[in-house]
Amino acid sequence: MITHLQDTTTLHNGVKMPWLGLGVFQVEEGQELVNAVKSAITHGYRSIDTAAIYGNESGVGQGIREGLQQAGIPREALFVTSKVWNADLGYEETLAAYETSLNKLGLDYLDLYLIHWPVAGKYKDAWRALETLYKAGKVKAIGVSNFQVHHLEDLMADAEIVPMVNQVEYHPRLTQREVQTFCRERGIQMEAWSPLMQGQLLDHPFLQELARQYGKSVAQIILRWDLQNGVVTIPKSTKPHRIAENADVFDFAITAEDMERISALNENLRVGPDPDHFDF
Ligand SMILES: NC(=O)c1ccc[n+]([C@@H]2O[C@H](COP(=O)([O-])OP(=O)(O)OC[C@H]3O[C@@H](n4cnc5c(N)ncnc54)[C@H](OP(=O)(O)O)[C@@H]3O)[C@@H](O)[C@H]2O)c1
User: Torsion-angle region of residue 187: left (phi > 0), alpha (psi -120 to 50) or beta?
Assistant: First the structure.
């Protein structure tokens, strides 16, 4: 039972990763970004998810510094994730991209570094770079994002290290059963992106009905469903009241029956690109 915002899952290398973090996709550099990150940390969030392509690592870094100071906690108390973008996939390129991300964030290590998308013919060299960074102690954990089962099988056929995390689009309309089963069997922690389907699920009549029954919001029902399914989740908001709302999911439990009813909403429907058909 996950009962606290700072509760963690243990990755297969022993590193502890918070079950819930803040996402910052589509948040531009600026005060709103800095304030969002700071507000999350002072509210008790211990995990922040960014990526090189979001173009906001400098502001995320500033929010982290200010948040840590205001909360009176050390860097080690925080779990920071970034991702290598497609244009930088390659052994040397990925090593360099990692340094660039660290510099922008103003950090001397990341907790988790991910290959953002499974670009055919490129992700294996990038993975070797992540393994090098990991073995050199420069990053606490390494993983992938948007990998389907066949991508994972292909990567792992040559990999020395099994990815610790696979971050994929995941919400009640896209339950990713195959990926989830595969990851569970291999000890790869699944992590949900766009857990709220970028807001598109919040007016769903069945979820609204459940929310009324549990005395919670639709967003809270969905995020609790993630956690009870063993999936790490990183909802994005820049609004302090929603940052707080999204973290208020540790004082209730959804029944097994309702968990099933939520999962039955699956339509294999994506809000983001399909990892088997993308052209960027
Ligand atoms: N690996 C990948 O390829 C990938 C792809 C996409 C996203 N991600 C990561 O996953 C994170 C989350 O995904 P996302 O940003 O796409 O979408 P999301 O978290 O599903 O939804 C964010 C949207 O919902 C709104 N919202 C948040 N909390 C709410 C609440 N309690 N009530 C009502 N509305 C709420 C936000 O608006 P306000 O900000 O106005 O509150 C925003 O418009 C990203 O930020 C990023 O870190 C990764």
Answer: left
How far is it, in rounded angstroms, from Cα 174 to Cα 151?
Answer: 18
| Percentages (nearest 5) of helix, strand, coil residues in the chain | 45, 15, 40
Q: pLDDT exceeding 90 applies to what percent of the chain?
A: 100
pLDDT in tens, 192-225: 999 999 999 999 999 999 999 999 999 999 999 9
Q: Which residue ranges have their beta carbon within 6 Å of ligand 1?
A: 23-25, 49, 116, 145-146, 167, 193-199, 202, 217, 219, 234-239, 242, 245-246, 272
Q: Say whether 134 is catalytic.
A: no
Percent over 70 (pLDDT), the chain: 100
Mutate to test the pocket of ligand 1, among 194, 274, 278 (most ligand atoms within 8 A of CB): 194
Pocket probe for ligand 1: among 237, 249, 270, the residue whose CB has the most ligand atoms within 8 Å is 237
CB–CB of 195/226 below 8 Å? yes
pLDDT tens for residues 13-69? 999 999 999 999 999 999 999 999 999 999 999 999 999 999 999 999 999 999 999
Whole-angstrom Cα distance, residue 12 to residue 164?
Answer: 6
Give the single-character DSSP code of 231.
-
| pLDDT value at residue 182 | 98
Q: How far apart are CA 220 and CA 262, in angstroms?
A: 13
57 Cβ contact partners less than 8 Å away, ≥ 6 residues apart: 50, 82, 101, 104, 105
What is the average per-residue pLDDT within 163-175?
98
CA of 190 to the centre of ligand 1 (A): 17
